[in-house]
Amino acid sequence: MLLELVGGAACGLAGLMTYGVRGRSSTLFAPSVWRGANRKAIALTFDDGPSESTPLLLELLAREGVPATFFQCGVNVRRLPGIAREVARAGHEIGNHSDSHPRFYLRSPAFMEEEMARAQAAIEDAAGVRPALFRVPYGARWFGLRRAQQRLGLMGVMWTAIGRDWKLKAGAITSRLLGAAANGAIFCLHDGRELEPRPDIRETLEAVRRLIPELRARGYHFETVSQILCPMN
After folding, report:
1. Residue 185 φ/ψ, nearest 5 degrees
2. Exposure pattern of 102-124 as b/e (b: 16+ CB <10 Å)?
3. Options 47, 48, 99, 191, the catalytic residue
4. Catalytic residue among 92, 97, 101, 190
5. How high is the mean pLDDT of the chain?
6. Model pLDDT, residue 64
7. Could you tell me which of 193, 205, 7, 225 has the C-alpha nearest to residue 101?
8. How many domains are contained in the chain?
9. Active site residue 47
10. Among this protein's residues, is 125 annotated catalytic?
11. Are 54 and 191 in contact (CB under 8 A)?
12. What is the pLDDT of residue 22?
């Protein structure tokens, strides 16, 4: 009986930790959001940029008149500062996605804060904006993240649905996200592939081309994350 109780407690603790680290609605390690206000709006977000492929996405979004939120890595910003500026000049929102895209779990609070601070500085230097939003790499949070976010003035952002566009074809990406479409949904896609130079994002681009008209046909419009978090817009 005692062994069963101990085993049950251990399983419960493991489940709590898993939820705390990866659960989209968890605030155990730091404040975060995963959806916005209850209105007919969707927020498209793009991680891991900027990349040499980002301008193609910017052209597509401009043609469609769609605002988006780009969670950028400091290493990529320093490599491509002109593209980071282009994102900001196009009117899109820029968030912090760490400096070098490491896994945060099992890392020290100092390590996490340094990663986030370096990305903040890189984005501010290149694009002239200071992010207010942060998306943790791999969606995996850890002890000490709350303090780092507080010190840097960042709100954590998870997602309602992730496209898995780094490995799926455009049709599967589109179906996956359309199936999760709901008022205030935040969709996670990628305009980069971690720190890879010249990433191939053709499937992402094709998925976005398909998603925008499909979502509009369902009555949705598009907002940045900061906009969709506001109760009234």
Report:
1. -65, 145
2. eebbebebeebbebbbbbbebbe
3. 47
4. 190
5. 94
6. 98
7. 193
8. 1
9. yes
10. no
11. yes
12. 82
Q: 159 lies in which domain range?
A: 30-229
CA distances from 163 to 17, 32, 121, 211, 222 (A): 24, 19, 29, 11, 17
Q: At 42, which CATH number?
A: 3.20.20.370
Residue 15 lies in a domain: no
Structural domain contains residue 20: no
Q: Cα(69)–Cα(44) distance, rounded to whole angstroms?
A: 6
User: Which pLDDT does position 11 carry in this prediction?
Assistant: 59
Distance CA 87, CA 218 (A): 27
Q: Residue range 206-215: average pLDDT?
A: 98
Q: Which two tokens stand for residue 80?
A: 């491509």
Reported as a single tens digit per residue, the pLDDT across 70-83 is: 999 999 999 999 99
Residue 23 has, within 13 A of its CA and on its CB side, a CA count of: 14
pLDDT, tens only, 57-66:
999 999 999 9
Length of the chain in residues, anyone?
A: 233
Q: Is the dihedral of CA 144, 75, 23, 6 positive or negative?
A: negative
